[in-house]
Please model this.
Amino acid sequence: MHERSVALAVLRQLDHIRESSGVRRFVRVTLELGELSGVEPSQFVEAFFELGTQEWLSGVELELRQTPLSAKCRSCGSMFPVESYTFLCPLCGSTSDLIDGDKITLVSVEAKVDADQSEDDNAAFLAPLNSR
Ligand SMILES: [Zn+2]
Model:
C-alpha cells in the first residue's frame, strides 16, 4: 500500500527532526500532497496514525493540503496549471514538463521543544520531503 510507505517516510523525517532539534512533542504537521502523487488523503491519515504511535506524536494535528498539477512549456517556458491532464502549452501548443503536483512535501511542523522552555514555545522547521 503506497500510503503506508509514504507515511513511514514522513515519520522517519519527523523522527530525524526530533533528534536533531530536541523536539519533545509535535503539535502540528503540515504536508502538501500533489494531485499526481498517488496518495489518497484519508488512507494516508489512517496509515500515519496507525504507524505513528510514538509518544512524541500523541495529540498531533495533521494538516494536508492538496497541490494542483502545474507544468512548464519546453519551448516558450511559460508555466501553467494542468487541467484535465492536458500537458500541451496553452500559448504555443508545445509539450511541457510537470513541475509541481507529483510530490509529497513536509511543509512545516510545530513542536514543543525540550528542556526548560515554557509549554508555549513552538519551534517551526521547514524541511522538504520528496517521497520518491
Ligand atoms: Zn509554450
Notes: The pocket of zinc ion is lined by residues 73, 75-76, 78, 89, 91-92, 94 (CB under 6 Å). The first strand starts at residue 23 and ends at 34. The chain has a mean pLDDT of 87. The beta strands are 23-34, 61-67, 70-73, 79-81, 96-100, 104-113, 122-125.
